[in-house]
Amino acid sequence: xxxxxxxxxxxxxxxxxxxxxxxxxxxxxxxxxxxxxxxxxxxxxxxxxxxxxxxxxxxxxxxxxxxxxxxxxxxxxxxxxxxxxxxxxxxxxxxxxxxxxxxxxxxxxxxxxxxxxxxxxxxxxxxxxxxxxxxxxxxxxxxxxxxxxxxxxxxxxxxxxxxxxxxxxxxxxxxxxxxxxxxxxxxxxxxxxxxxxxxxxxxxxxxxxxxxxxxxxxxxxxxxxxxxxxxxxxxxxxxxxxxxxxxxxxxxxxxxxxxxxxxxxxxxxxxxxxxxxxxxxxxxxxxxxxxxxxxxxxxxxxxxxxxxxxxxxxxxxxxxxxxxxxxxxxxxxxxxxxxxxxxxxxxxxxxxxxxxxxxxxxxxxxxxxxxxxxxxxxxxxxxxxxxxxxxxxxxxxxxxxxxxxxxxxxxxxxxxxxxxxxxxxxxxxxx
Length: 431
Description:
By secondary structure, this protein is α/β, with parallel strands linked by helices. Helices cover 37% and strands 12% of the residues.
């Protein structure tokens, strides 16, 4: 009997959400959660509130009836009221702990539904909630580190967007490149799936790589890097090294795509940090260690950069860079944030660059690329974190082909990109 009552309460909550009945929700949520799910569809109250706004297009566009007789179509007053009520409902659900990126059984978040239905205001509300949640997680993570009495902090590794947040309304943020839902082109795993241990950095660095001319796969068939990224790397190199004679640092060699392009710009110096033994072996075979002006640092950037800061080159000049690029594997977004917050500010020349107005910093922007709402959320998050660290950021859109239809993901455990547009970041010191 208790189970029936529970099921009934879930139905009542979902119905109140779909009816945009905030008063009814207020009473129901006193003794229940804003994150209940329909056992058949996986809808949460957020899903229900947004999906209820889908228009019935079977009758075609409605005509305005408030005096206009020229046949112009306009959104009827009833529709405006419906969307206003939906927005109030969505806001109320977030105030009561609704999770912004819970998945239904159709592999859609509430934001995915809002985007599909063209509900821009509701989409913005979901996106803003996602940003708040991610920023909160980021701050909580910082406080945990500050309060940790252990000699060594716990590893903050793994590279996936976790669709089952343990903090109210949030997920763990993904990083720049990974074989995970942070960049997945196929449906994300169920909300209850935990981080894939094969994508943690210790496992990755200890495992063997399958290195082909156009792909690198790890021992679990996760894609480390693929040649479809070439247009992205080409444009990044053009923006970071617009003229010969500049100094560049690249974190993560991979297939060497961007390092090859950096070489085409005839840099004055070219430093590369690479951690995986198999990639380093490949670099040695290709003669990277003997290239003029190239310095290869073997190891994790976390271990290399402390030694590089304040160091001097063979001419006695402090080692600084006009351009820096960051593209690592098996690290979370927090690693990227630490990189530009703690290290870029120390090794990027504020008087460098083509015109002496400061060096530039770029990174592979694959955060949240399994779905548009996550990508949009993490764009705002990184903008805020970069601003706090003292950087302006400019975005340039690059269209990406349908990688699924071209067979790009054949043999790959989990594709890491699904979107039509890549947003390429270029960062400079503020001012």
